Amino acid sequence: MKNKNILTKILALALVVLMAAFTFAACGKADTNSDLDSTASEIKTISITVTVVAADKTEKVFNIETTKKNLGDALFEEGLVTEDEHKSGYYNYIDGVRADYTKDGAWWCFTKGGETVMVGANDLKITDGDKFEITNTPA
């Protein structure tokens, strides 16, 4: 009976050790492939140029360094658009200048390399070296 009691304790201890070993191995593997490690190596600062063209055709050039993935986020980070407009994706103000179609028919035309973009700024992916124009287009 005494031997059976000792055997039970040894088996229980072995089970605990095995469970700890498997847990440690699983945690160790997760740590080596963690999102933090892969994200840290994927975060890259890119440079884009944004030229804002006012209704009177004056231009203001912004050289933006960012880690953002889309134009809307980069514009917000740079302070060129408000938080509310960034969230909605509908921009009346760029760099504090209003173009409001509902009031006077004016709107902001987004182009990339002179070509009109077909998605909103919040969905427009950016890459290093991109050049965008945002033009206040009066009615």
Poorly predicted regions: 20-38
The CATH topology of the largest domain, please?
Ferric Hydroxamate Uptake Protein, Chain A, domain 1
By DSSP (H or I, 4+ residues per run), the number of helices equals 5
Radius of gyration: 28 Å
Task: Write a structural description.
This protein has 139 residues and is α+β, with helices and mostly antiparallel strands. The chain is 41% helix and 25% strand. The protein contains 5 helices and 7 strands, in the order H-H-E-E-H-H-E-E-H-E-E-E. The strands form 2 sheets. It has a 5-stranded mixed beta sheet, with helices on one face. A two-stranded antiparallel sheet has the order 3-4. A hairpin with a 2-residue loop joins strand 5 and strand 6 (115-116).
SSE diagram, text form:
Blueprint: H1 2-32, H2 35-42, E1 46-53, E2 59-66, H3 71-78, H4 83-88, E3 93-94, E4 97-98, H5 101-104, E5 107-112, E6 115-116, E7 131-137
Parallel strand pairs: 1-7
Antiparallel strand pairs: 1-2, 3-4, 5-6, 5-7
Offer a concise description of the structure.
The chain contains five helices and seven strands.
Features:
139 residues, alpha+beta, Ferric Hydroxamate Uptake Protein, Chain A, domain 1, 2 domains, five-stranded mixed sheet, two-stranded antiparallel ribbon, 5 helices, 7 strands, 41% helix, elongated
